[in-house]
Amino acid sequence: MNSYTITPGDGRSAQELIKSTQCDVGSYAQSFLGSVDFPLTSTEKKEDVQIVLVQFSSDPSTTEVLEEFKKQGLLQPRAEDTLLFAEKYPEEQGNNPIVFLHEPWMTPGGGKSVFILRQYGSVRYLHMALAEPQNKWYAHHRFAGVKKS
Q1: How far does CA 120 lie from the centroid of its chain?
Q2: What is the reported pTM?
Q3: What distance in Å separates the CA atoms of residue 69 and residue 64, rounded to the nearest whole number?
Q4: Tens digit of each residue's pLDDT (9 = 90 or more) over 76-90
């Protein structure tokens, strides 16, 4: 199981974190990142977080991914973890898309959305995707879980 270390709570703003990712940011992602709903870890809680990428052999639903997280003793990531991961491990999103099933953001259209990192050619993207419980993801997607400390 590969794990990747990130450190939330370094005091940067959401806009500073976005710049650091060097990703093209989709309009819904930009709306979420600029809203009061986007949480940032306080600098008093600065501690390493271990991200584990989980992949399936078939197309899993959001519910199935979260059940697998429980089996493996993983927690859901925070939205902020997506930006820190994209900044520190830019090559990973070029391998296969990475879904961060954080607490979903309610889009203006009423859907529950989460961040997804992907790459087309040489351009890296930070977008949002619907994450309803029955939503099916593709088997080539990887899902970021947080290893309990």
Answers
A1: 18
A2: 0.93
A3: 9
A4: 999 999 999 999 999
